[in-house]
Amino acid sequence: MERGIAWVTGKGVTVDSIIGGIVEGQLRRIYLDHAATTPTHPEVVKAMLPYFTDAFGNPSSIYSYGQEAKGAVEKARTRVAELIGARSEEIVFTSGGTEADNSALKGVAHANEHKGNHIITTSIEHHAVMEACKFLERRGFRITYLPVDKYGLVDPDDVKRVITDKTILISVMHASNEVGTIEALEGIGQIAREAGVYFHSDAVQAVGHIPVNVDKLKVDLLSISGHKFYGPKGVGALYTRKGTKLVSLMHGGEQEKRRRAGTENVPGIVGLGKAVELAGQEMGKEANRLADLRDRLIRGLMERIDHIRLNGHPEKRLPNNVNVSIDFVEGESMLLNLDLEGICGSTGSACSSASLEPSHVLLALGLSPEQAHGSLRFTLGRENTEADTERVLEVLPGIVAKLRAMSPLFKTRE
Amino acid sequence: MPDVWSQYSNKVMDHFKNPRNVGEIENPDGIGHVGNPVCGDIMELYIKVEDGIIVDAKFKTFGCGAAIATSSMVTEIVKGKSIEEALRISNKTVAEALDGLPALKMHCSVLAEDALKLAIEDYLGRQKPKK
Fold first, then answer.
1. Per-residue pLDDT tens digits for A375-400
2. What residues in B contact A4, CB-CB < 8 Å?
3. Can you give the pTM of this predicted structure?
4. Is A223 an 8 Å CB contact of chain B?
5. CATH topology for B2-130?
6. Which residue of B has its CA nearest to A337?
7. ipTM of the predicted structure?
8. A288 and A403 inside one domain
9. Which residues sit opposite A167 in a β-bridge?
10. Which residues pair with B60 in a beta bridge?
11. How much is the pLDDT for A4?
12. Residue A122 half-sphere exposure toward CB, CA atoms < 13 A
């Protein structure tokens, strides 16, 4: 994003001042894309630093350097386990959410193919799940992609209906990265358990933001990503309920009790542990604060822009997610105009992707291609304040009016 | 997408921020309508022709930054050109006039060329009955 960066690459600009969103004498940048990634919390960075230098040991080594590192990894494991109500031996560290999803899907599929070849998932999953399913499909597995309602909710009865004696795995995301809808996992978990089918959830957008408990949700596998809640990139975890049969993606050394070979990303794991600790302390209060900001932003947009709709569920929704479709205008041109004002958001428009196809999630919700192209997503985070959402409300209506004035779709309706 | 934005030239950004010739022409001599909602780009080009010369051109576009910039640029290029000259304007002409487009956005220049061609065809079609 050269144009965004151009304002802040001037002399004397520090990472802190960028994270703070204010650069002296320059355009104030407002980051509203926390579902894409979050800035690493300064305390997380501080916790990680010693593990690059002084405590650099390999956890597999038996001398003190190794044991120091191993101790730190195990401490992080305990923290992750505690946050989601699991036992520490049920946590395997990965390189992130994508690896966790791939490990869950391919791992369960290949370990249980003697039992059956049927997997149930949804039509709104993240690409990490969707593409892993497509890969398995090409290898002879049968995948059912369940539809969702207009809010993005999966009907547990639909899950029940499509289970067969060949079903080995159900994978339903906890909360949508695009529209923020929180799925009714408990009911689906109950159905999976009664049918004796493993249940996985991609909880990358949920963990660290809303309470997640693996027993309450009745999940057998759950994916976590560090950088979605102020941890570092390149680290995540897969929760695997004791007794769940899956094969490893990685073969090599005996790390992670032979479930994931490869020298542990010790600084990353320590950072994930710290991010989990901070989330545990701040999550409840922060969720309330963000939900309030979110609702103000949604209300403000509805008041100031006509022909606009909220995408996703009005209540069962992540506290930080705002996703709207604005008729007659295209997402990328809105985003580019917002970027010129220093505001960073995202869109489900085709123009934002190489495929030239609009978001599969918005289409699954029943939006027309035009509505999907006209979508904007703002995802709030800990550094955002009301001044940021006010700024969006100040500039977006003007941008929409300008683009509508040149839109051939607008003319035909008005 | 951000890596696409960094490839937008200053000219693309200029035409995106201050698009030229936005709007419709009343009683145009030709209209070109291209694109579809599924791909996310819709372009409408209007031309006014006097004595075989395109004296005015305007556009309306639903689309990304590059789609708006190419629409704006093609209307600028075509003004004052004869029909024969205008028919020789290709998507490359438009892209080059904008100091290039990201590879992912070259289709936008194709859309601009197509819109112009259709507008001219529409104009030529309207001439026939008279002759």
1. 999 999 999 999 999 999 999 999 99
2. 2
3. 0.92
4. no
5. Sufe protein. Chain: A (3.90.1010)
6. B17
7. 0.93
8. yes
9. A118
10. B44
11. 35
12. 31
